[in-house]
Amino acid sequence: MASIQTSLRVLVIEDETASRLAIVRALRESQHTAFEAADGVAGLEIAKTEPLDAVVLDLMLPRMDGIRLLTELRRTSRVPVIVVSARRTEDDRVEALDLGADDYLTKPFTVRELLARLRAVVRRTEADTASAITLGDIVIDFSAKTVCRNATRIPLTATEFEMLTALARHRGEVVPRDVLERAIRQDGSAHVSNVVDVIILRLRRKLGRELIATRRGQGFIIELQDGRG
Q1: R_g over Cα of the chain
Q2: Which end of the chain is more exposed for a tag (fewer CB within 10 A), N or C?
Q3: Where are the domains of the chain?
Q4: Among 196, 205, 194, 130, which Cα is nearest to 162's?
Q5: 228 three-state secondary structure
Q6: Homologous superfamily (CATH) for 9-128
């Protein structure tokens, strides 16, 4: 997997010529390597033969639709996939995400937003495979399930660690409240109506108020800053 600071190898599978060329041009102008395909069969062949960092996939494709292509691709590859589609229903998004898409972007969208989504999914994929993450003076060791600040271990409960993990692996992105609730339910914790707020408060007390920011009405975020992972 390429670092997000270097050139990415991105495959664009889109049958609308103008849209495909615009995305490819933007990628190349941003110093990335872009591959392109106008139908599902050609796209799947490239995805199986080229080492890629990400795929941009339209759903409504000739010869092989995007859902079938995604299903086939996930049998052999975990390359990050961003679905781009005019389909706007919740069922469409849920189906694509359940089949292994990493993000879903509805048309119309700006190329600038797409490039930001690409950076985010590549960053998230790298974080998902990392055994540890450093956030300024805080080191989270996922395999040992420990957190240290300035080389001093900070004791966290299982629930606190699970929530911190969910935020850290998605650092730079707003994590909705319901996602955090699902993350901590996996450890068997008892239901508390304001459980997310309670745990966020405890994490701030232990690790510093500046680590986790609140986005009112959206969720919580660990910001990406210079020297903070």
Answers
A1: 19
A2: N
A3: 9-128, 132-221
A4: 196
A5: coil
A6: Response regulator (3.40.50.2300)
